[in-house]
Amino acid sequence: MSQIAPETTASDLDSAHELTAADRCDLCGAQAYVRVTMASGELLFCGHHGAKYKEKLAATALSLHDETDRLYEAR
Fold this sequence. Notes:
- The chain contains 2 helices and 3 strands; from the N terminus they run H-E-E-H-E.
- It is α+β, with helices and mostly antiparallel strands and 75 residues long.
- It has one domain (20-72).
- The longest helix is centred in the last third of the chain and has 12 residues, at 47-58.
- It starts with 9 loop residues before the first helix and ends in a 9-residue tail after the last strand.
């Protein structure tokens, strides 16, 4: 079981888990905006594939981290 050090804040955790341009969709290779943690490991999906499989994955995922709202932010 992992433990978080007392000096670690929630914002530190958010930035540590934020997806970057280096994270690529496991299906098509586009930039990943969805991270799904399963018992067997982690899957990364682009916005399209994340939306397509979200309902099915949510039923069995340990966690689902969705950053697709970044696609719609004003630049």
